[in-house]
Amino acid sequence: MQRYNAAVTPSRTNKVTDICPGNMGGKNWPPTAYNPNLKLWYIPVIESCNRITVEETTPDKLKKREFFTGGGPSQPVKITGSVTAIDVTTGKVAGKAETEFPNLGGILATPDLVFSGQPSGEVIAYDAKSLQQLWQFNTGGGVNAPPMTFSVDGKQYVAILVGLGGAWDKWFIDATPELKRMQPGSMLYVFAL
After folding, report:
1. How many CB atoms lie within 10 A of CB 110?
2. Full-prediction pTM beyond 0.85?
3. Which among 92, 96, 128, 168 is placed 20 to 30 Å from 14, CA to CA?
4. By C-alpha distance, which of 39, 191, 29, 189 is closest to 109?
5. 148: part of which helix (H) or strand (E)?
6. pLDDT digits (tens, 9 = 90+) for 6-40
7. 157: helix, coil or strand?
8. How many whole angstroms separate alpha carbon 108 and alpha carbon 60?
9. CB-based contact 139:123 (threshold 8 Å)
10. How far apart are the C-alpha atoms of 73 and 25, rounded to whole Å?
11. pLDDT digit string (tens) for 132-157?
């Protein structure tokens, strides 16, 4: 996991600084999953840093009725991600599967597998113990929804909604320029186990 570094706090004297993890980094809103048999907690991680620039703003630079937040961070480094397993008995990282893009969709754990999706379109199955990638399917659309599972007549299925959208492609797409090619859409994929 990324460590917080208090020494890089921006101020009037420290006007430009990089902060890791960034505002989209670490564990964010996508759901985690837990395997009670292995005592592993799987976390969808967004690995990012922000550049903060402190600038003085005068009232004459502001426009009436314009949305103003006082500024915001920029992402000077490409944002990536990981599926990280934490051993809940020790609190230590038990495994980590690095991903090219941030993990926006969340995690699903079964007794033997961990499922996740990528905003570049891949649905991935990992081994629950080692986080070694076992299977991948390219959906052709970005994934930012969590996978889910259900069974019908004793057969187990994994379903995932595909279609990149939401906050990422509005505010953070510049930090992952390869995702600009992903078309919006909505499709439900269901896989049998």
Report:
1. 16
2. no
3. 168
4. 39
5. strand 148-152
6. 666 777 777 888 887 777 777 777 899 999 999 99
7. strand
8. 51
9. yes
10. 12
11. 999 999 998 889 899 999 999 999 99
pLDDT tens readout for residues 58-93:
777 777 877 766 666 777 788 899 999 999 999 999
What is the C-alpha to C-alpha distance for residues 6 and 175, in angstroms, rounded to an integer?
A: 23
What dihedral do alpha carbons 126, 91, 145, 147 form, nearest 10°?
40
Sequence-ordered list of residues with C-beta below 8 angstroms from that of 108, at least 6 positions apart, any chain? 33, 114, 115, 116, 146, 147, 148, 149, 158
Q: Whole-angstrom Cα distance, residue 171 to residue 169?
A: 6
- Give the sign of the dihedral formed by CA 107, CA 108, CA 111, CA 114: negative
Distances in Å between the alpha carbon of 143 and those of 20, 31, 123, 137, 161? Answer: 25, 14, 8, 12, 7
Give the rounded distance of the alpha carbon of 119 from its chain centre.
9
Give strand pairing partners of 96.
Answer: 84
Encoding tokens for residue 139?
Answer: 């959906």
